[in-house]
Structures are given as C-alpha cells and as structure tokens.
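Deliverable D2.4 — example input (structure tokens):
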C-alpha cells in the first residue's frame, strides 16, 4: 500500500510539474503572439469618442448610398482638406466619392495638417439641405476665391457626415 501511495504521489507530481511547464510554454507563446500582433497593427490616435467599432470600415461610396439619421457607419477614407481656421471640418474621399465631415456637438476638432492621410471615421452619413449662406461660408473656410464663393446660388443639397469619432494613424 505504501508503494501505491508513493507511485500515486510521484504520478501526481509529474502531472503537476509537467502541466505547469506546458502552461508556461503556452503562456510565453501566447504573449509573444500578442506582442507581434500589437506591433503589426496600425496605431491610431482617437479624436471624439474613443470607443472604436469592431465592424470593418465601409467604402465611402457605399456609406453614401444609404444616408441615415440613425445608422452609425464606419468608413476609411483619405482626407483631402481640413478647415484651416480651427480643424472643425474635413473633406474625405475614396477616389470616387467625396463627403464633408463635421464633428458631433463641435465636441472635438482634428489637426489642420492631416490632408493626405487615410483615416477612419465613425458617425452618421445624412443628406442635408445647406442654406446658401452656410455653403458660401464653407467655401470661404476652404479657401475658395471670392469668384468661386459668389457662384454659389441657392440652397445646396449634400451628403454629409457627422462624426462621433475620428481615428488618425500615429505612424
């Protein structure tokens, strides 16, 4: 019986130490994999709401096909212009479509030097009627000439985006 207890104890010790070693190896491999994934993932600086959706970004053209005042979408697009007074709006393009983006409750602004960067924006894409005076103001903010501003006549129908968050690449 003593012999059986010794064998059972030895077997239990072997299993305990063997599992511990395997667990440590697995843990090291898992940590290494996580670090590799972090180093390969693009890093973003959040403006606005920092909770990023897990859904893949839509093409801007696809998001613009179905404007909605209730459906938050996530798009990845290139910044073509930014308000040079405060960074209170930006223009995005995906090559075929363009949209003016403003920021929820004017709660945040973006850096004025991000033209040319590809960003992720989350928010509502809607169709709006812009009064002539606002359309002219937007044109002035964009640095349009006086002649270009004066060409704007009447209210303007536009697809716009009200972003709740913007993610700029850090690197």
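Example output (designed residues):
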């Amino acid at each position: 019986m003593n012999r059986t207890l010794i064998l059972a104890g030895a077997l239990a010790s072997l299993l305990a130490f063997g599992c511990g070693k395997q667990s440590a190896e697995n843990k090291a491999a898992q940590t290494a994999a996580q670090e590799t994934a972090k180093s390969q993932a693009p890093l973003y600086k959040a403006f606005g709401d920092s909770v990023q959706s897990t859904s893949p970004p839509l093409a801007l053209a696809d998001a613009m096909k179905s404007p909605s005042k209730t459906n938050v979408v996530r798009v990845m697009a290139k910044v073509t212009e930014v308000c040079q007074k405060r960074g209170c709006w930006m223009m995005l393009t995906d090559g075929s479509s363009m949209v003016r983006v403003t920021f929820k409750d004017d709660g945040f602004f973006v850096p004025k030097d991000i033209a040319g960067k590809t960003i992720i924006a989350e928010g509502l894409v809607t169709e709006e009627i812009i009064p002539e005076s606002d359309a002219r103001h937007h044109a002035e903010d964009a640095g349009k000439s006086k002649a270009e501003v004066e060409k704007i006549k009447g209210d303007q129908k536009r697809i716009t985006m009200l972003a709740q968050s913007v993610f700029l690449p850090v690197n």
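Residues 119 and 143 are 22 Å apart (CA to CA).
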